[in-house]
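haha ok so turns out i had the wrong file open the whole time. this is the CORRECT one, sorry everyone. sequence first:
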Amino acid sequence: MITRPRIAVIAGTRPEAIKLAPVVRRLRAQAAETLFVSTGQHREMLAQVLAAFELEPDLDLGIMRAGQDLHDVTVATLTRLKPVLRELRPAWVVVQGDTTTAMAAALAAFYERTSVAHVEAGLRTNDRYRPFPEELNRRLVDQLSTALFAPTALAREALLREGFPEGRILVTGNTVVDAIHHLRATGGTRRRHAAGLDLEAIPGRVVLVTSHRRESFGEGLAAICRALARIAERAPDVTVVYPVHLNPNVDGPVRAALGGHPRIALLPPVSYVELAALLERAHLVLTDSGGIQEEAPSFRKPVLVLRDVTERPEGVAAGVAALVGTGEERIVEETLRLLSDRAAYERMACGANPYGDGRAAERIVEALLDPPPAFAA
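then structure:
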């Protein structure tokens, strides 16, 4: 009888759940002893995602409290994971990405001398405050990890430049592509409604917008809103659809600037399945989200990135994404160009997704269940 290692997979936010769900499903398909732990950082949004993958957490740490900050999330995650890890003694703790949950969970595992596997290792902007706190979080998680699952060759090269041993790095592709493949296979992207909006009834083309980064708060977000209003005025066949983050630094300014415009639909936060349906319906995407930069190419939708730097340069290199920053004029110019220049649009819309082939979880699980010698170092 083959003995499988006990593996704890830890998630706290919606992006983590999206990207770890394929790993959990694959582990369980391989009959691995898997404990799926939610820190409860974004409980409701995490539950929505997991329902789409027919998953539930085995344990919810319930760390979220009103008004807490990054210090509080870090301390609560460390404190509540300590007895869990001491009782269960997993062979691996698997974390994803660059959240405070991922950083604190990796640190808690390190304190217990438990091996950490980092899904989506090696992403870099090389600017410690953009994005904040994600850039330092992912660097810390990489330092704490034994297994570094780099989503792309560029991420692997970044890790090698920083001195990580080659044997501890495995290029897997990004698990978000696995997640999209699952949703498409199960019909999850064919929903008609998103947050009450009838997607089939929207006339003309849809420009999907998401923007919620801390570094854009204030003038950056104001400039984005001014650009969206101008785009809606100058492209009369376009409807701008913007699911607005509940953070008051986003929700208040966006609704004050754009509320009531007849061709700008401001939605409440949408579920992951609804977001996938919006991506299916969209003609073009404007976003500062890391995940959407990776997801939109699977739908063959051009992406304009509302940031000055990105830790996901593969999309830009492949020609399926372009950095436009938060300057009003540049956003308007680039968006209208893609809306009016069919050849430019087709060049961005016809490329393959540079972030993966839908088999990332398979590669990750194979390495966890049958780890190479370097993973034991």
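Residues 7-173+359-376 form a domain with the Rossmann fold fold (CATH 3.40.50.2000).
again sry for the mixup
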